[in-house]
Amino acid sequence: MSNGLKKWLAMNAGGYRETIPLTAPRDGGRSSQAATPYIRNEGGDVLSPLQDHKERRHGTRLMVRNLLAERQEVLVSYCRLAGLEPYTGDKPVRRQLDEFCQLLMDYTAFGHFELYGRISEGEERRERVVGVAKDVYSKIAVTTEQAVAFNDKYDASDHNLNLEPLPGDLSALGERLAQRMELEDQLVSALIEDLPEESGV
């Protein structure tokens, strides 16, 4: 893990893990709450195992919807920024670049802390989901490092911007983001494949 990614993780979560211990229960997630038949939700309400299962399913779908919404915002902002080329002084390049970098960091942070954080902390019990996460995480982490590097280079808050390499850097980042989204789609498919139909996802 690069120093840049460690710094980004520390800023976004107060720390980082060198690796994510992705493990699944031996029974594939079929048994649950054997020792504790009732649990509480975030509001403190006591839930039966069935209610807990329903809340987990709803939470999974909500997380996926939020991820896809973050992703769509990044794609729209990316296209707007790319559409300003050539980057001349009479165009709102800096404003659009700042917006894109902020959305990019929000999107990558959501994937790391919400999606993989849930799995690494043992909240995901399905063996297939954990297996897919193990397969794709290291590749997605590479794209996170590249997104952080792009943000560090084009964040104008602490240094003057040199826009000359921006077209090439933006093109390379676009390829990495496309790869990331393909990998995320594999995990999203595993997350929702056995959930009941709902509108939205």
In the sheet with the most strands, the strands line up as: 1-2
Q: What class would the helix/strand composition place it in?
A: mainly alpha
Radius of gyration: 20 Å
Mean model confidence by pLDDT: 77
Count of discrete domains: 1
Level-2 CATH architecture:
Up-down Bundle
Q: Rough shape?
A: elongated
Total strand segments: 2
Order of helices and strands: HEEHHHH
Distance between the termini: 33 Å
- The CATH homologous superfamily is called Regulator of RNA polymerase sigma(70) subunit, domain 4
CATH class reads Mainly Alpha
Biggest β-sheet description:
2 strands, antiparallel
Count of discrete alpha- or pi-helical segments spanning 4 or more residues: 5
* Low-confidence blocks of residues: 13-41, 46-52
Could you tell me the strand content as a percent range?
under 5%
CATH topology: Four Helix Bundle (Hemerythrin (Met), subunit A)
Helix content: 55-70%
Describe this structure in words.
- The protein has helices spanning 3-13, 49-82, 93-120, 127-154, 166-192; strands spanning 39-40, 46-47.
- The chain has 201 residues and is mainly alpha-helical.
- The chain has a single domain (47-192), classed as Up-down Bundle (Four Helix Bundle (Hemerythrin (Met), subunit A)), CATH 1.20.120.
- A hairpin with a 5-residue loop joins β1 and β2 (46-47).
- It is 64% helix and 2% strand.
- It is built from five helices and two strands; from the N terminus they run αββαααα.
- A two-stranded antiparallel sheet has the order 1-2.
- The model is unreliable at 13-41 and 46-52 (pLDDT under 50).
